[in-house]
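Researcher: Batch entry, complex prediction.
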Amino acid sequence: MAEPTEHPTLEVCLSPALLHLYDLSQKIVVVIDVLRATSTICTALYHGAQKVIPVDSVEKCMEIGRQLGAVTAGERDGHIAPGLEHGNSPLEYPASFIRDKILVLTTTNGTRLLHMAKDAEEIIIGSFLNLTLVCEYLISRKRPVMLACAGWKDRINLEDTLLAGAIIHRIKTHFDIQCDAALIAEKLYEGTHKHLMHHMQQASHYKRLIRHGFEKDIAYCLTIDGAAVLPVYRDGAIELA
Amino acid sequence: MAEPTEHPTLEVCLSPALLHLYDLSQKIVVVIDVLRATSTICTALYHGAQKVIPVDSVEKCMEIGRQLGAVTAGERDGHIAPGLEHGNSPLEYPASFIRDKILVLTTTNGTRLLHMAKDAEEIIIGSFLNLTLVCEYLISRKRPVMLACAGWKDRINLEDTLLAGAIIHRIKTHFDIQCDAALIAEKLYEGTHKHLMHHMQQASHYKRLIRHGFEKDIAYCLTIDGAAVLPVYRDGAIELA
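Model: Structure tokens for the complex:
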């Protein structure tokens, strides 16, 4: 039985609807929305975007887009939202398009979670695309950590839980884990990571995206270290650390 | 990829704080609070208790106890609550004591969840102690199922998630599962069930109970089919089906 140690704590919150149970004020929060907000954010910044501004409504997205001459993006029910220019697919943001631009992004789950975590000491963006950098950063900072999963409309989802498990699997010896959700996420990852894409095919959001033709997005979003940057959310915008 | 089938749905809710996301009105809800409310309920009824009345406060427990001449039980912070006679340990309720009596029980998490599920078509009580009967019943009824975990103060816990996984593992071919929490619970169970007690030692509630001297309770509560009854919650009381 692992006794409490001098290591900082590591916890996992599997749904935004549970985030109020935790005090985030002294913690580094890793916001996780694998399909696809945090994967798209990592990709845009990796490809040279100046910054990403996450907003919670289509109206705000259009307004800020006009003010800043920025690229506006967001989907509702699997289609580009009326009034916006682009979707949530990370594959829409190659360097040839997004370099030096500002991206204003509205997503259903990830954006909302970013705003909910505003009391945190730091907020960073996690995806499989920047897994190694996130892990190295968390180890180096020696601060309490909360892995916050966006889920789907407050329901727990497979892909975000898997990424939480992947992070824990890599960094657990540096942290004091007294959180059952963290144990669950890690066990899930250990049992499935050798056939990640196979297990993903059972996920509800996989089926949703496939119906809308986003099969390539899923394979890309599961690519470990495919867009190795460390995005930080600060003062309403996400930029490289 | 599993396509939707004609089978009834099976979902899992890992925290009472997420239960509002689901419509329970057409469903059989299995209330799960392994450590220890639902294990104690199964045990008392298996040992001949007339019924168990779950209440949400110590005051109500005392009042109903007086009215019915019933046994009153409940703990707060690991000790018998002031004003009540017994604790939440299933081992306090052998047949020699509880046969033909009414037990009024107040617990922190399980009782609250029973009341939250009141809109369900049916509510049954699940524990490892009655695993096989619960599974057989759910298969026979051919109705949509929600496995509702009590958790700990709205946080997800290991033992309730494990039991949900154990149920799914046994009955999944009879149901249409489009719920990521169900996939997660089942994978967790598949990866740990050969060494259940070992994995339980990492659980937060295990550590809490050990500190209060309840080690025997835990081993008992993980005993598959140790108290093979099917308790049903109806009109404010729990009785055998």
